[in-house]
């Protein structure tokens, strides 16, 4: 990672691995706010029954931080800080993608039966959303 990427919001987008406890009965994964994710968890929501040709996201948050997981199936997340775009495929329920504030995100290529779980740092607040990319790009000029 370069010094430039650390000064950019994109430098904070990263994959987060969670612990797994395995025994003959199966696997158990757990997550603790402030320990496994860099914030206290204030909201949890999940997406399911998403048609395979659907797109989700298409916004950024002014203050909210999130970690996104594919609990079942897979999907692609494209993140953008106004200068750089990166793509991640989520398909392992033990690995989530941390997305800091002021990062545009788009989700697509959902597999049949995909389940997406999101851990959020704040309760829902419509005022925190930036839903227009041009407005987002204007706010993130370097």
TrEMBL record:
<protein>
    <submittedName>
        <fullName>WxcM-like domain-containing protein</fullName>
    </submittedName>
</protein>
<dbReference type="InterPro" id="IPR011051">
    <property type="entry name" value="RmlC_Cupin_sf"/>
</dbReference>
<feature type="domain" description="Sugar 3,4-ketoisomerase QdtA cupin">
    <location>
        <begin position="13"/>
        <end position="140"/>
    </location>
</feature>
<dbReference type="InterPro" id="IPR014710">
    <property type="entry name" value="RmlC-like_jellyroll"/>
</dbReference>
<dbReference type="Pfam" id="PF05523">
    <property type="entry name" value="FdtA"/>
</dbReference>
<dbReference type="InterPro" id="IPR008894">
    <property type="entry name" value="QdtA_cupin_dom"/>
</dbReference>
